[in-house]
Design goal:
By secondary structure, this protein is an alpha/beta fold. The protein has helices at about 25-40, 55-65, 100-110, 125, 130-140, 145-150, 175-185, 205-210, 245-255, 275-280, 325-335, 355-365, 395-405, 430-440; strands at about 10, 20, 40-45, 70-75, 75-80, 95, 115-120, 145, 150-160, 165, 170, 190, 190-195, 215-220, 225-230, 235-240, 260-270, 285-295, 300-305, 315, 340-345, 370-375, 375-380, 390, 415. The protein folds into two domains: about 10-25 and about 240-440, Enolpyruvate transferase domain (UDP-n-acetylglucosamine1-carboxyvinyl-transferase, Chain, Alpha-beta prism); about 25-240, Alpha-beta prism (UDP-n-acetylglucosamine1-carboxyvinyl-transferase, Chain), CATH 3.65.10. The protein is built from 14 helices and 25 strands. The longest helix is centred in the first third of the chain and has 13 residues, at about 25-40. Bound molecules: shikimate-3-phosphate. Its EC number is 2.5.1.19.
């Protein structure tokens, strides 16, 4: 593998992956630790913070909002919170880069703060739907302007000088970003704000806000979450687990490359995020979960994965939000499985950093894959032998990494152009993959 320039990643087929490793910290949890630390009173220390571009964007935005944040090492962050009053009108535009979590959650927070902010991001962010968060926030009394009737960034938010209105929001999409934006605005609303979703999405906001001292309510079916307005949030020590969405690339790589065996330490296996393990097992994969324990309110475990012959499966319904970010790499696993894999109920893939249905189908076809696009997923016929080709990441970190893993079993060289985006969530991915291949 050639890693000299991450703008162009070249992968050759070769040895199995063997060894033991951690992966960088969880992206969702790293964002939230900075944001909630900024709203709390006291010093929040974040250990194993993900120093990926997305989370660095969150630090940058909250610094521009007047919060003192130090980063003594790439993965240690210290947030000096002074409560919501410590956030001040920014004199610059808040640029979230590529990060959907930053813009959507921060818009929820800014809706409740009494000053004007302008938030924007890169080309992908400016194409992605923001109406899903601005709609409920406007309903709560926030003042938000933006392109296309406040549904596209840049957004301008003139936070309320009086309390927002607590609402019960029935979200049409299962999205933790929507749920979190409403709950965070709910911190600035009189009474209890609640959100109901069609399917359970990741619950890091509820867990971490509760640890910071917010009064969080949850329905038994997990579909409704609520928060009481105006809590006194207190600073916390946050221990960030390894990101299962990053581990997923190694889980699939080790499953498909014969002779591989990996131990991945300290991986977050929150039940709202662990769909990848269930799917790999349903496909015949050999994944063991060991030493499961709770760390700072999140479930963490060590994962052992060995290569195994995979078979096709059907993925749809309630599991989709539990593996939404893993669908590009699952599509790659399916290519090397016997039989057909169907992914359905996953139209949300189309509004991620890229349209991941169109992009993955298009790029994997360049390697000779047999994939059919569906409005809400794809049909992947496994067993085709792939040949290396020149592919494009389209600036999407997970597309770049999924293509790199496909290249491990394609004949000849697979090139991924514009692979620098990998730094968004998994800095050091190419180097780690190379080290594990040398571990054989
Ligand atoms: C995230 C939620 C998911 C996920 C994204 C991170 C979060 O998005 O795809 O990578 O941190 O809340 P949606 O909530 O929009 O599905």
């Amino acid at each position: 593998m050639q890693t000299a320039s991450l703008k162009r990643l070249a992968v050759q087929p070769g040895p199995p992956l063997r060894g033991e490793t951690e992966v960088p910290g969880d992206k969702s949890i790293s964002h939230r630790a900075v944001m909630f630390g900024a709203l709390a009173k006291g010093v929040t220390r974040v250990h194993r913070f993900l120093p990926g571009q997305d989370c660095l964007s969150t630090i940058d935005c909250f610094r521009k909002l007047g919060v003192r944040i130090e980063q003594p090492s790439p993965s240690e962050v210290v947030v000096y919170g002074q409560g919501p009053g410590g956030l001040k009108e920014p004199s610059e535009v808040l640029d979230v880069g590529n990060s959907g979590t930053t813009i959507r959650l921060m818009t929820g927070i800014l809706s409740g703060l009494p000053f004007l902010s302008v938030v924007t991001g890169d080309g992908s962010i400016r194409r992605r739907p923001m109406g899903r968060v601005t709609r409920p926030l406007l309903e709560m009394g926030a003042s938000i302007w933006g392109r296309e009737n406040a549904t596209k960034a840049p957004l301008a938010i003139n936070g309320a000088s009086m309390a927002l209105e607590a609402i019960h929001y029935n979200s049409p999409v299962a999205s933790a970003q929507v749920k979190s934006a409403v709950l965070l605005a709910g911190l600035f609303a009189e009474g209890r704000t609640s959100v109901r979703e069609p399917l359970v999405s990741r619950d890091h906001t509820e867990r971490m806000l509760a640890a910071f001292g917010a009064k969080i309510g949850r329905s038994e079916d997990g579909l409704t979450a609520s928060v009481e307005g105006f809590p006194e949030l207190r600073a916390q020590e946050v221990e960030v687990p390894g990101d299962i969405s990053s581990a997923a690339f190694l889980l699939v790589a080790a499953s498909i490359v014969p002779g591989s065996e990996l131990v991945l330490y300290n991986i977050g296996v929150n039940p709202t995020r662990d769909g990848i393990i269930e799917v790999l097992r349903a496909m015949g994969g050999d994944v063991q979960v060991e030493n499961a324990r709770e760390v700072a309110g999140e479930l963490v475990a060590d994962l052992i994965v060995r290569s195994a012959p995979l078979k096709g499966t059907t993925i749809g319904g309630a599991i989709i939000p539990r593996l939404i970010d893993e669908l590009p790499i699952i599509a790659v696993a399916a290519l090397f499985a016997e039989g057909t894999t169907e992914i359905r109920d996953a139209a949300e893939m189309r509004v991620k950093e890229t349209d991941r249905i169109a992009v993955m189908a298009g790029e994997l076809r360049k390697l000779g894959a047999d994939i059919e696009e569906r409005p809400d997923g794809m049909i992947i016929r496994g067993g085709a032998s792939l040949r290396g080709a020149e592919t494009e990441s389209h600036g999407d970190h997970r597309v770049a990494m999924a293509l790199a893993v496909a290249g491990l079993l394609a004949e000849g060289e697979t090139v991924i152009n514009d692979a620098a985006s990998i730094d968004v969530s998994f800095p050091g991915f190419a180097e780690l993959l190379e080290t594990l291949r040398r571990g054989a």
